[in-house]
User: What shape does this take?
Amino acid sequence: MVWNFLENIRHLILSMNSIKDEHLNALIGAEVLKNLWSLDISSNFITNDGIKILVQCEHLSNVRSLNLSGNKIGNLGVMTLS
Assistant: This one.
C-alpha cells in the first residue's frame, strides 16, 4: 500500500481514539509524516512510555505544536519532552 499522500499532511488530529503507547509506533512511526507541523493526540491512553516513543521519532522534528492533554503523563514524561 502506498502512503505517499501522507507527506502533504501538516496537521494531524487523533484525539479521543483510545490510542495506547503500543499504537504510537504504527500511527506516527511512518517517515511520511516528516512534514507534520502539529499533532493532537489528546484524550487517549498515552503514558510516560509513550512519550519516550515520541521523542525517538526523529522525523517528527518539524512538529511545533503537540497536544497531549487528557493522557496519563506524569512529571517524568513532561521532563522527557523538555
About this structure: DSSP finds three helices and three strands in the chain. The chain has a mean pLDDT of 88. The longest strand covers residues 11-13. The first helix runs from residue 21 to 28.
